[in-house]
Protein backbone atom coordinates (compact mmCIF):
# COMPACT_ATOMS: atom_id res chain seq x y z
CA UNK A 1 0.00 0.00 0.00
CA UNK A 2 1.20 3.48 -0.85
CA UNK A 3 1.86 5.92 1.99
CA UNK A 4 0.78 8.88 -0.15
CA UNK A 5 -2.66 10.25 0.69
CA UNK A 6 -4.94 12.21 -1.61
CA UNK A 7 -7.04 14.70 0.33
CA UNK A 8 -10.60 14.95 -1.00
CA UNK A 9 -11.73 17.70 1.36
CA UNK A 10 -12.91 18.60 4.82
CA UNK A 11 -16.29 19.33 6.35
CA UNK A 12 -18.14 20.88 9.30
CA UNK A 13 -21.21 19.04 10.51
CA UNK A 14 -23.79 20.57 12.86
CA UNK A 15 -24.80 16.99 13.78
CA UNK A 16 -23.43 14.67 16.47
CA UNK A 17 -20.67 12.20 15.58
CA UNK A 18 -23.23 9.37 15.61
CA UNK A 19 -25.61 11.18 13.25
CA UNK A 20 -22.74 12.30 11.01
CA UNK A 21 -21.61 8.67 10.71
CA UNK A 22 -25.12 7.80 9.49
CA UNK A 23 -24.93 10.62 6.93
CA UNK A 24 -21.48 9.43 5.78
CA UNK A 25 -22.70 5.84 5.46
CA UNK A 26 -25.71 6.98 3.46
CA UNK A 27 -23.38 8.88 1.12
CA UNK A 28 -21.03 5.96 0.49
CA UNK A 29 -23.43 2.98 0.71
CA UNK A 30 -24.28 2.96 -3.02
CA UNK A 31 -20.67 2.01 -3.79
CA UNK A 32 -20.50 -0.85 -1.26
CA UNK A 33 -20.80 -4.40 -2.54
CA UNK A 34 -23.00 -5.28 0.47
CA UNK A 35 -24.34 -2.03 1.97
CA UNK A 36 -24.54 -2.93 5.66
CA UNK A 37 -23.69 -0.59 8.55
CA UNK A 38 -20.99 -2.86 9.99
CA UNK A 39 -17.35 -3.75 9.46
CA UNK A 40 -16.74 -6.75 7.20
CA UNK A 41 -13.64 -8.71 6.25
CA UNK A 42 -12.17 -8.98 2.76
CA UNK A 43 -13.21 -12.10 0.88
CA UNK A 44 -11.67 -14.19 -1.84
CA UNK A 45 -13.46 -12.18 -4.52
CA UNK A 46 -12.83 -8.44 -4.78
CA UNK A 47 -15.42 -6.19 -3.16
CA UNK A 48 -15.95 -2.71 -1.73
CA UNK A 49 -16.60 -2.99 2.01
CA UNK A 50 -16.43 -1.14 5.36
CA UNK A 51 -13.16 -1.97 7.10
CA UNK A 52 -13.51 0.61 9.92
CA UNK A 53 -16.61 2.02 11.59
CA UNK A 54 -16.30 3.75 14.97
CA UNK A 55 -16.59 7.18 16.60
CA UNK A 56 -13.38 8.28 14.86
CA UNK A 57 -14.90 7.72 11.40
CA UNK A 58 -15.06 5.05 8.76
CA UNK A 59 -12.91 3.45 6.09
CA UNK A 60 -14.16 1.94 2.85
CA UNK A 61 -11.73 -0.54 1.31
CA UNK A 62 -11.76 -1.97 -2.20
CA UNK A 63 -10.00 -5.28 -2.73
CA UNK A 64 -9.82 -8.88 -1.58
CA UNK A 65 -7.75 -10.95 0.85
CA UNK A 66 -4.66 -10.61 -1.35
CA UNK A 67 -4.86 -7.11 -2.90
CA UNK A 68 -6.06 -3.74 -1.68
CA UNK A 69 -7.02 -1.46 -4.59
CA UNK A 70 -7.63 1.63 -2.45
CA UNK A 71 -8.93 2.89 0.90
CA UNK A 72 -11.36 5.81 1.27
CA UNK A 73 -11.15 7.31 4.76
CA UNK A 74 -13.42 9.69 6.68
CA UNK A 75 -12.00 10.88 10.00
CA UNK A 76 -14.26 12.66 12.51
CA UNK A 77 -13.45 14.99 15.40
CA UNK A 78 -16.20 16.01 17.85
CA UNK A 79 -16.66 19.75 18.51
CA UNK A 80 -18.96 21.87 20.69
CA UNK A 81 -21.26 22.36 17.70
CA UNK A 82 -21.26 18.87 16.13
CA UNK A 83 -18.09 17.60 14.48
CA UNK A 84 -15.51 18.29 11.81
CA UNK A 85 -13.93 15.83 9.46
CA UNK A 86 -11.35 15.05 6.80
CA UNK A 87 -11.91 12.84 3.77
CA UNK A 88 -9.04 11.29 1.82
CA UNK A 89 -7.82 8.32 -0.19
CA UNK A 90 -4.77 6.28 0.75
CA UNK A 91 -3.25 6.97 -2.69
CA UNK A 92 -3.61 9.45 -5.52
CA UNK A 93 -6.23 8.75 -8.20
CA UNK A 94 -3.58 7.94 -10.81
CA UNK A 95 -2.26 5.13 -8.59
CA UNK A 96 -5.66 3.41 -8.35
CA UNK A 97 -5.42 0.64 -10.94
CA UNK A 98 -8.79 -1.03 -10.31
CA UNK A 99 -12.21 0.35 -9.51
CA UNK A 100 -11.36 4.04 -9.88
CA UNK A 101 -15.03 4.68 -10.68
CA UNK A 102 -15.94 3.49 -7.19
CA UNK A 103 -13.39 5.88 -5.65
CA UNK A 104 -14.89 8.79 -7.58
CA UNK A 105 -18.41 7.60 -6.71
CA UNK A 106 -17.58 7.50 -3.00
CA UNK A 107 -16.42 11.14 -3.04
CA UNK A 108 -19.37 12.31 -5.14
CA UNK A 109 -21.96 10.38 -3.14
CA UNK A 110 -20.59 11.70 0.13
CA UNK A 111 -20.64 15.28 -1.14
CA UNK A 112 -24.28 14.88 -2.20
CA UNK A 113 -25.21 13.34 1.16
CA UNK A 114 -23.56 16.24 2.97
CA UNK A 115 -25.43 18.80 0.86
CA UNK A 116 -28.77 17.14 1.65
CA UNK A 117 -28.07 17.23 5.41
CA UNK A 118 -26.66 20.78 5.80
CA UNK A 119 -23.06 19.63 6.26
CA UNK A 120 -20.67 22.27 4.92
CA UNK A 121 -17.75 21.04 2.78
CA UNK A 122 -14.47 22.86 2.18
CA UNK A 123 -11.97 22.43 -0.67
CA UNK A 124 -13.77 19.37 -2.07
CA UNK A 125 -12.10 17.58 -5.00
CA UNK A 126 -13.57 14.45 -6.55
CA UNK A 127 -11.05 13.87 -9.33
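^ Assign residues to that structure.
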Amino acid sequence: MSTFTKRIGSFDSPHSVEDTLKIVFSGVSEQLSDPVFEVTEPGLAAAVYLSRLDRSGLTVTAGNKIDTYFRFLVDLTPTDRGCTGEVYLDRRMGAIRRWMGNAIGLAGGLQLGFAQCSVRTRSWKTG
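Strands lie at 6-13, 47-54, 57-63, 68-79, 82-89, 120-122.
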